[in-house]
Backbone:
């Protein structure tokens, strides 16, 4: 077994060992089809884990089931057993499998085909499926594997071509359900409700089987996602090998600025070292560019071992389907020894016997980190898990307090399907699929009626014989991106070629694609040449730049409605609806090498407004006076950054999903106030999680800033990479004083 020794590596901040665990095995159920039993025996499966049997029993009783166990615990068999058993009985029954990533569909098809059951006819129907093959898959497949995007835009609006499928739909499987959170999850929850409505139109009521990684609220997530009642299976009966967990903190290279050696460079060096020991290894990075950089650096380190260098590869989105399948096959079969990957491999793809996982930077949630580490150690193998910290405040918080990660309950997956910005578009799409009437409330809930009235007033729907129908003949689903809260977006186009590189929400366009901005796409660097407000396009060109850009914005927050308030520690906190106004006024060009400011360039861009949800607090006079002895404005700003940095520990989100404002005097509250709000129009419930867990959030933020060894604040505590005020002003001592007195 591969082990890292602290005496050899001074970067090791902490080591933990997880003991091996024997599995809880059960006999195959007597009611299971003989052909399924035989097929499983042929694959070497003669017993079930306890959670697999429990799921089969609940499914047999007609229950909707959500299974939450760690990665590599055999969740696929939880839903495959009832589906295959039903298909073995004959008839025309169908199953729909939904996956958040195309690679998962391909992996599941391989598993199903390996069982060689003649009556199981799986077919993948997604954006990679050739058009010529689609009619045959639609007609023949009785296990249809797809993703929410294809269901949303390619299947539901054309349900007339799928009549036989929907009429016979018996099961809907939603794998990796924890992926559906925030904006994406809120959209998918609406797609699922549209699916249930279309099924009812054809007379079917499918049974839902969900699987999720270990999260804090699996039952609530399943019910929010589907609108149905579920039974929970959360006892993990799988076996697990011994695991060494290593916290690795890169050495400090600049004590004054608190700068450490790159986490990616450290990851590449450790990757190469493990490969030299023939340890099968995955390195997880947060971005596509980072995955490529780790791979390239590792190749350079392995120049004297070309055979090893030939056995590693990068893996990320943007590759062709053929390239992705080849890498997956190489990992599974063992021809590849290592991969530098984005989170694309974090989900439940079977990559065979992996010995070590390196997480280069905190992936955003504790749940994701455990999911990554679970890629190693399948079937009781011993494994190594390494967390290499970046400069980010959350990374450094865990380096100083490893128990806060290892013993912490994982986060809750948050979504809000009835978020005003998202809900209305899906009601339009539902009306396109079939006219809407009162009885549809059983799918869309009590907010449907006022939303329909608003759509009618806006001229998007009209009433006809007591039913709401579309006022226009266009195709509404095509204009709804499942990954954006706003229907308004800017298209990013490459100058000269006209290639579309992507889209960005209108509310974020001035931040990411303002004139002169450096924009990264698939590891390539582009600079924005022109931003057309009328045409909603950003024209970019490839650039060789040794600098990056950071915009400065002025922000104002207006309280539209206070919905909740309570006392938390020594302060009163509120939660409600906000109206955020932002204006990007200039941007800095900063050297990549040392963050030196090259120049500040003014911008002439209009104000942007968007409604959202948030929490806020106003400091009592005694706390404000104590902070004022240091620097009240800097303390408020530093406390705001600390709270935002750690909010992802309570809601499964990224720091970039959260906005904030601190001010010495707010015109509505009458005092020094901190606002923390959802960065997406309409809000999706992130700040509400902060409101519910505020006491613990304050305590952790105080611990984070106090524990940082810097003198006056650094990227590991109160400086933020997304700060619209360019991290000015900031006071570490005043922030500590405010957070201490809040408790």
Residues:
């Amino acid at each position: 077994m591969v082990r890292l020794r602290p005496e050899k590596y001074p970067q090791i901040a902490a080591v933990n060992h997880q003991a091996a665990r024997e599995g809880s095995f059960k006999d195959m159920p007597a009611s299971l089809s003989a052909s399924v039993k035989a097929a499983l025996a042929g694959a070497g499966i003669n017993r079930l884990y306890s959670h697999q049997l429990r799921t089969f029993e609940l499914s047999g009783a007609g229950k909707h089931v959500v299974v939450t166990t760690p990665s590599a615990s055999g969740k696929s068999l939880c839903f495959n057993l009832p589906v295959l058993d039903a298909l073995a009985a004959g008839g025309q029954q169908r199953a729909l499998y939904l996956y958040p990533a195309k690679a998962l569909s391909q992996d599941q098809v391989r598993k199903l085909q390996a069982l060689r059951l003649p009556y199981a006819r799986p077919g993948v129907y997604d954006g990679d499926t050739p058009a010529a093959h689609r009619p045959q898959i639609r007609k023949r497949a009785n296990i249809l594997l797809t993703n929410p995007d294809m269901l949303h835009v390619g299947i539901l609006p054309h349900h007339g071509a799928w009549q036989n499928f929907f009429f016979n739909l018996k099961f809907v499987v939603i794998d990796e359900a924890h992926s559906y959170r925030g904006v994406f999850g809120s959209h998918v929850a609406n797609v699922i409700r549209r699916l249930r409505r279309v099924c009812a139109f054809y007379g079917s009521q499918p049974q839902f089987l969900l699987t999720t990684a270990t999260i804090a609220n699996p039952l609530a997530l399943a019910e929010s996602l589907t609108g149905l009642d579920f039974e929970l299976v959360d006892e993990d009966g799988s076996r697990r090998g011994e695991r060494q967990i290593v916290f690795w903190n890169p050495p400090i290279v600049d004590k004054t600025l608190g700068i450490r050696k790159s986490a990616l460079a450290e990851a590449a060096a450790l990757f190469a070292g493990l490969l030299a020991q023939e340890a099968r290894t995955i390195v997880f990075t947060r971005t596509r560019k980072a995955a490529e950089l780790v791979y390239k650096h590792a190749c350079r380190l392995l120049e004297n071992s070309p055979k090893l260098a030939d056995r590693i590869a990068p893996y990320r989105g943007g590759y062709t389907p053929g390239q992705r399948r080849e890498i997956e096959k190489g990992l599974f079969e063992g021809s590849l020894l290592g991969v530098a990957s984005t989170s694309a491999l974090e989900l439940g793809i079977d990559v065979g016997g992996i010995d070590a996982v390196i997480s280069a930077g905190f992936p955003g949630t504790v749940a994701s980190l455990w999911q990554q580490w679970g890629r190693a150690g399948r079937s009781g193998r011993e494994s190594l898990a390494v967390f290499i910290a970046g400069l980010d405040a959350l990374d450094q918080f865990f380096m100083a307090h490893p128990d806060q990660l290892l013993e912490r309950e994982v986060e809750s997956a948050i979504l809000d399907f009835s978020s005003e910005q998202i809900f209305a578009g899906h009601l339009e799409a539902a009306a396109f699929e079939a006219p809407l009437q009162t009885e549809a409330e059983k799918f869309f809930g009590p907010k449907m009626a006022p939303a329909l009235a608003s759509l009618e007033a806006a001229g998007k729907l009209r009433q006809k014989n007591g039913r709401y129908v579309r006022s226009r003949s266009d195709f509404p689903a095509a204009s709804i991106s499942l990954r954006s809260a706003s229907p308004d977006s800017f298209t990013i186009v490459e100058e000269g070629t006209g290639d579309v590189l992507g889209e960005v929400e209108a509310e974020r366009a001035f931040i990411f694609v303002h004139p002169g901005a450096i924009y990264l796409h698939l590891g390539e660097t582009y600079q924005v040449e022109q931003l057309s407000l009328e045409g909603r396009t950003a024209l970019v060109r490839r650039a060789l730049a040794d600098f990056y850009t950071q915009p400065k914005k002025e922000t104002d927050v207006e309280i539209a409605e206070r919905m909740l308030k309570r006392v938390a520690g020594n302060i009163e906190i509120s939660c409600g609806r906000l109206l955020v106004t932002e204006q990007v006024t200039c941007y800095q060009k900063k050297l990549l090498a040392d963050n030196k400011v090259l120049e500040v360039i003014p911008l002439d861009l209009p104000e942007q407004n968007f409604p959202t949800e948030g929490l806020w607090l106003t400091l009592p006079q005694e706390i404000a006076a104590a902070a004022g002895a240091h620097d009240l404005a800097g303390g408020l700003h530093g406390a705001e950054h600390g709270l935002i940095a750690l909010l992802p520990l309570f809601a499964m989100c990224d720091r970039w999903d959260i906005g904030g404002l601190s001010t010495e005097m707010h015109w509505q509250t009458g005092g020094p106030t901190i606002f923390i709000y959802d960065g997406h129009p309409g809000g999706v419930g992130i700040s509400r999680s902060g409101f519910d867990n505020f006491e613990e959030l304050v305590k952790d933020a105080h611990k984070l800033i106090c524990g940082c060894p810097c003198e006056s604040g650094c990227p590991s505590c109160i400086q933020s990479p997304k700060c619209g005020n360019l991290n000015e002003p900031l006071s570490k001592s005043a922030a500590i004083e405010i957070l201490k007195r809040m408790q």
Remarks:
- The chain has 25 helices and 31 strands.
